[in-house]
Write a structure and sequence with these properties.
- The protein is an alpha+beta fold and 645 residues long.
- It has 16 helices and 22 strands.
- The strands form three sheets. The protein has a seven-stranded antiparallel beta sheet with strand order 2-6-7-8-13-10-11, with no helix packed on it. The protein has a six-stranded mixed beta barrel with strand order 15-16-20-19-17-22. A five-stranded mixed beta sheet has the order 1-4-5-9-12, with no helix packed on it.
- Helix 2 crosses helix 4, helix 3 packs parallel to helix 15 and helix 6 packs antiparallel against helix 7.
- The longest helix has 19 residues.
- It is globular and about 75 Å long.
- This is Glycoside hydrolase family 127 protein.
Length: 645
């Protein structure tokens, strides 16, 4: 039986590290993004997404503006609102969301279809460009939003709208004669359909998702056939060199062994594959998920949990190609990786998946948003020299400071919905066997449904400042319950004490099992000292370099602490590392190291010379990667040259 997440309504997060981010969702992020979607942020790129719905609904006149998937900004914002309302009821916010839902319902066509681009701009071209048109991708995000809003408020209007749309999709796509035998160019509707099936109990939505997964890459490539039509009109110029691997349609999904193509598309597909594998007990599909997961995390993932190294087409390239200063690592891709890892953990009950989920959430996902919740990174590099981030160059996609908004604004609302639903990652629940899996160490108070019984738990921690947490089981089923405590891959000297008595800590599949027959307090402690980390020698970009990691956090050097020209610095790994508490960013642990710096005044040549430059002693200060670029523009570096003795 698959684990599931605890109900967000029953989780209250009060955490020293995460609350400063999660609380921003309702106080700053949702309001700010509402203003952005209404084009009321000065000097920010236009959104127009709500205006597109007003035009499609007939409330106003005008032309469609934006990308073909512009509707998804509204969808992800509504999903974040749904998650937020589940935890924090807010009558005014709910009223605003209801008005947006009314607008979407007005824009819905008589047959259930919703898509402002095709309704306004290309009404006769529905379903004729699955490769580029993003109709099914947009539908999927709307479905996810409708389910989240229904679960958060109990209101069905949005859900019913999306059921009508899903019914249309089921009637339109499939193997039967007269139906379109295609599948999404950008995967996402599979996830939406599966969530819709879970929320409504209508299995045909699950079967439709399975069709989209099973049909992908089978026989003649559907997208190449689309593009061969004489009347085919290309939406994205970069698709002129399109190959099926870009959309993971080069092979049937069960035969794919490497993560290929557009990174967000890929991990959304893998999420659906995992869901379908679990729902249908499909061992071949599950093995494919494991193979693809291993390829990503062992050969194609950054230390920060970033994926998709190429700035061209936002894609995977080849094993070990992980450049630092012009990589892409889209925020959405790491969110998708976390969602994939969550599903694999729930199916396999192995803590190794949550190790990666934690790394992605604490680093790339958090780096994507400023500490005030009002600016964002789309791209997450591991090395930045601001003057070189120029238009018309290979680094044009790299921004040295977070942006107020984007013309393609998929990342900001995606981060919003992720922070709003953070509770889904904390626990895994096995109702049938009355078991609770503790996955993330975030202070919270929760009620856990265990079949017909409940457990009340409180987790208290200062993690990741300190490596310990207390789990108080305040009430539990009469028959008792099992608690599985995750042992992170970086943990040393892991110990478990129950009611004052130390227990054997023998991990199995990344967890230590404790059985509780009565209310009790479980204390977990371990060591996670700051360490130097080396990359596989096949990662050419990191040869001769080291990074600093402490627990789940990757650290970086910033110009604000270490001066300019960070690549001219060498770190002395023999001298060790020192951890210090700092008031920066509301309280963090900084890490200092000893090293050498090339003395610029020692350089006697011109552009090149034969005289070896002199090195001077220096002390290096590293901060957690998610907080970089919160003190103004400056250089940043994760991988540091190692000093040779």
């Amino acid at each position: 039986m698959r684990l599931h997440s605890a109900d967000l309504k029953n989780i209250s997060i009060r955490d020293g590290f995460w609350s400063k981010h999660v609380d921003l969702v309702r106080s700053a992020i949702i309001p700010y993004q509402w203003e952005a979607m209404n084009d009321r942020i000065p000097d920010a790129e236009s959104s127009h997404c709500l205006e597109n719905f007003r035009i499609a609904a007939g409330r106003t006149k005008g032309e469609f503006y934006g990308a073909v998937f512009q509707d998804t900004d509204v969808a992800k914002w509504l999903e974040a609102v749904g998650f937020s309302l589940a935890c924090y009821p807010d009558a005014e916010l709910e009223k605003t969301a209801d008005e947006v839902i009314d607008l979407i319902a007005e824009a819905q066509c008589d047959d259930g279809y919703i898509n402002t681009y095709f309704t306004i701009k290309e009404p006769k071209k529905r379903w004729t460009d699955l490769c580029e048109g993003h109709e099914l991708y947009t539908a999927g995000h709307l479905m996810e939003a409708a389910v989240a809003y229904y679960q958060g408020t109990g209101k069905r209007k949005f859900l019913d709208c999306m059921c009508r749309f899903a019914d249309l999709i089921c009637d339109t796509f499939g193997t039967e004669e007269g139906k379109i035998h295609g599948y999404p160019g950008h995967e996402e509707v599979e996830i939406g359909l599966i969530k819709l099936a879970d929320a409504t109990g209508n299995r045909k939505y699950l079967e439709q998702a399975k069709y989209f997964v099973d049909a992908r890459g089978v026989g003649e490539n559907y997208f190449m056939k689309e593009m061969s039509r004489p009347d085919y009109k290309m939406i994205f110029p970069e698709f002129a060199d399109y190959t099926p691997a870009y959309s993971q349609s080069h092979l049937p999904v069960r035969e794919q062994t490497t993560a290929e193509g557009h990174a967000v598309r890929a991990v959304y597909l893998y999420c659906a594959m995992a869901d379908i594998a679990g729902a249908y007990q499909d061992e071949a599909l599950l093995r494919a998920c494991e193979t693809l997961w291993n390829n990503i995390v062992e050969k194609r993932m950054y230390l920060t949990g970033g994926i998709g190294s190429s700035g061209i087409l936002e894609r995977f390239t080849v094993d070990y190609d992980l450049p630092n200063e012009y990589n892409y690592s889209e925020s959405c891709a790491s969110i998708g990786l976390a969602l994939f890892g969550l599903r694999m953990n729930q199916i396999m009950r192995d803590g190794k998946y949550m190790d990666v989920v934690e790394r992605a959430l604490y680093n790339t996902v958090l780096a994507g948003i400023a500490l005030d919740g009002k600016s964002f990174f789309y791209v997450n590099p591991l090395e930045v020299w601001p003057p070189a981030c120029m238009e018309g160059t290979s680094k044009r996609h790299v921004k040295p400071v977070r942006q107020k908004w984007f013309g393609v604004a998929c990342c900001p609302p995606n981060i919003a919905r992720t922070l709003a639903s953070l509770g889904q990652y904390i626990y895994g629940v096995d109702e049938e066997n009355r078991a609770l899996y503790v996955n993330l160490f975030i202070s919270n108070e929760s009620t856990i449904e265990l079949g017909e019984a409940q457990a009340a738990v409180r987790l208290t921690t200062t993690y990741p400042e300190e490596a310990s947490f207390t789990l108080e089981i305040k009430s539990l089923p009469e028959e008792g319950m099992d608690v599985f405590l995750r042992v992170p891959d970086f943990a040393e000297n892991y110990s478990v004490t129950v009611a004052g008595t130390e227990q054997p800590a023998q991990p199995e599949n990344g967890y230590v099992r404790v059985h509780a027959d009565a209310p009790c307090t479980i204390l977990v402690s371990f060591a996670m000292p700051a360490k130097f980390v080396y990359a596989n020698p096949q990662v050419r970009a990191d040869s001769g370099k080291v990074a600093i990691v402490r627990g789940p956090l990757v650290y970086c050097l910033e110009e604000a602490d270490n001066g300019e020209n960070l690549p001219a610095v060498y770190v002395d790994t023999a001298a060790g590392l020192e951890e210090k508490k700092s008031p920066l960013f509301g309280g963090i642990v900084t890490v200092t190291a000893r090293g050498k710096r090339i003395a610029p005044q020692s350089w006697k040549g011109g552009l090149y010379g034969t005289e070896k430059p002199e090195l001077t002693d220096c002390t290096l200060t590293a901060i957690p990667y998610p907080y970089w670029s919160n003190r103004g523009q400056g250089e940043m570096l994760v991988w540091i040259k190692e000093l040779n003795h």
